[in-house]
Amino acid sequence: MSTSSGQLPTRRPRRDEVRATILSAATRVFARRGIDAASVDDVATAAGYTKGAVYSNFENKDGLVAALVEDHTAAYLALGLAAAASADGALASRAQALGDRLDAATEEERDWHLLFVELWQRAVREDPSADGFRERRTAMRDAIATAVREHAEASGADLVLPAEHLAVAIMALANGMALERLVAADDVPDGLTGRLLAELATSFSRPRTP
After folding, report:
1. Range of the domain at 20
2. pLDDT tens digits, one per residue of 79-93
3. Which of 1-10, 77-86, 179-188, 200-209 has the highest mean pLDDT?
4. Nearest to 116 by CA among 171, 46, 190
5. Phi/psi of residue 8, nearest 5 degrees
6. Is residue 141 located within the same domain as residue 165?
7. Both 29 and 69 in a single domain?
8. 5 located within any domain
9. Helix 110-124 and helix 91-108: axis angle, to 10°?
10. Who's near 31: CB < 8 A, 6+ residues apart?
């Protein structure tokens, strides 16, 4: 269908498209300027929308930050679990695949890792604005622990430490390696995170005895 001027009408973006664009812009703006220094106006400008469009999708800046945490942690968890599930049955192979995928994600989501540092600092300082970050971190630990137990069972291995403890070690190693990669990429070559996670899996599991 054409307009009276003979031009095709412009398609109005769907709400989920607007939301995704705003979240992407907010990640860039908050990472590069800091959450406190950046304004909702800054995010709206970077997204190419009005401030009203931001507020129609998110209650306020804190709500926008909470949505960012939810969005990115869910995406990372899904990527990591999918990578581990795609590897063969050995627990070490699954850990290697997980680490390799996380290394790639570091390059793909540099802004998110910068923002992660600020959110982590807020959580350490027990800032109420980091409550959502702490909750998502706990949910991620639980999901990883469940996956570790399931992968150990599928590969016929017994864990020598609680799965929750191994999940914390996996998160600490992956986060630390990502930050080191941002500072000095040459010090963290491709595959290193995967190899370390594979060694971790080998060290803290043993073949099940009949």
Report:
1. 12-58
2. 777 877 777 777 788
3. 179-188
4. 171
5. -70, 140
6. yes
7. no
8. no
9. 100
10. 110, 111, 112, 114, 115, 118
Q: What is the CATH number of the domain that holds 176?
A: 1.10.357.10
Contact 35, 49 (CB under 8 A): no
Long-range contacts of 170-179 (CB under 8 A, 24+ apart): 170/95, 170/98, 170/144, 170/197, 170/200, 171/137, 171/140, 171/141, 171/144, 173/197, 173/200, 174/99, 174/102, 175/116, 177/102, 177/103, 177/106, 178/102, 178/105, 178/106, 178/113, 179/113, 179/117
Residue 151: phi and psi, rounded to 5, are -70, -35
Residues facing residue 104 across a β-bridge: none
Ordered alpha helix ranges (H), the chain = 15-33, 40-47, 51-57, 61-86, 91-108, 110-124, 131-154, 163-183, 192-203
Rounded-to-integer distance, Cα 209 and Cα 151, Å? 17
Model pLDDT for residues 162-188, shown as the tens digit of each residue? 999 999 998 899 899 989 988 898 898
Indicate if 135 and 38 belong to the same structural domain: no
Report the C-alpha gap between 206 and 180 in whole angstroms. Answer: 30
The tokens for 3 are: 């307009």
pTM of the model: 0.81
CA distance 181 to 75: 20
The CATH code of the domain that includes 17 is 1.10.10.60
